[in-house]
Design a protein that fits this description.
- Helices cover 32% and strands 25% of the residues.
- By secondary structure, it is α/β, with parallel strands linked by helices.
- The protein has a six-stranded mixed sheet.
């Protein structure tokens, strides 16, 4: 299916080359099946962007309906070693090809970016004065830490306002907090290292059952904002960046899981 693209369209290759460099796709380590970068091509031009947290059928369909030429996501299409295009993977790919929508994915490279990364953007949104990194993956700094003098209750209220929903609090640390670390998504296992790093409050998305006891015995506040809710920040900030650089309009496709 052909699309009518105006004079403001940009080469897909130019956008991808910029993203690869800006996000340090080749430098930031990630899970072997993350496949960061361009995952599906289109006919070569981009006039409108769509961004979403996840590349799933609902977001693919809505990107196509919005007339997007490129869908940028945090969680891409491929997360297992099976290369077969069957079942739901086939349906997603078929819709993308029919609508001529490309897909670009950035997982950990988007989490860790100092300007548009999920961690840095969320921390700045709640007023944390960033001072350095916290946590690592394969030796690479992954989260952020910084200072914010605030009552724990007020911090929770501020997070709920920014995330537009309730958060879960394991109140095992001080009521007056000052040293905060942020790793969005599913990083609650890092709470065990928080006390050693002088962190009194750790913010992430979701946790396993045993992480409750990790926080309790470390004396650290563990605040869970939801995997999805804490990871909407990066794709939106990246879309703003691309709008400024290339003049491309964009749409954020919201598809919350509540998890």
């Amino acid at each position: 299916m052909s699309k009518s693209r105006g004079p403001q369209s940009v080469d897909l290759a130019e956008i991808c080359a910029h993203l690869d460099e800006y996000l340090r796709i080749s430098e930031v380590p990630d899970y072997p099946t993350a496949h960061n970068g361009l995952q599906v091509a289109n006919s070569g031009r981009v006039a409108r962007l769509a961004v979403a947290v996840d590349a799933v059928q609902a977001t693919v369909d809505r990107a196509a309906e919005a007339g997007a030429d490129l869908l940028i996501v945090h969680h891409g299409l491929f997360w297992d070693p099976d290369p077969r295009l069957t079942d739901r993977r086939y349906r997603r790919i078929r819709r993308l090809l029919e609508a001529d929508v490309a897909v670009y994915s950035a997982h950990l490279p988007l989490d860790v970016h100092p300007e548009v990364g999920n961690n840095a953007v969320l921390a700045r949104e709640i007023g944390v004065e960033l001072e350095g990194s916290f946590g690592e993956y394969r030796g690479f700094p992954i989260g952020v830490r910084g200072r914010l003098e605030i009552d724990r209750e007020e911090l929770v209220e501020r997070l709920e306002q920014r995330l537009a929903g309730s958060v879960r609090v394991i109140a095992a640390g001080p009521e007056r907090v000052s040293q905060i670390a942020v790793i969005t998504g599913g990083a609650a296992g890092e709470v065990k290292r928080a006390r050693e790093a002088g962190i009194d409050t750790f913010i992430t998305g979701e946790a396993a059952h045993h992480n409750y006891f990790d926080a309790e015995e470390a004396g650290v506040n563990l605040i869970l904002g939801g995997h999805y809710a804490t990871e909407t920040w990066g794709v939106r900030a990246l879309a703003h960046h691309l709008e400024e650089r290339f003049g491309l309009p964009w749409t954020f496709i919201e598809h919350p899981t509540g998890l």
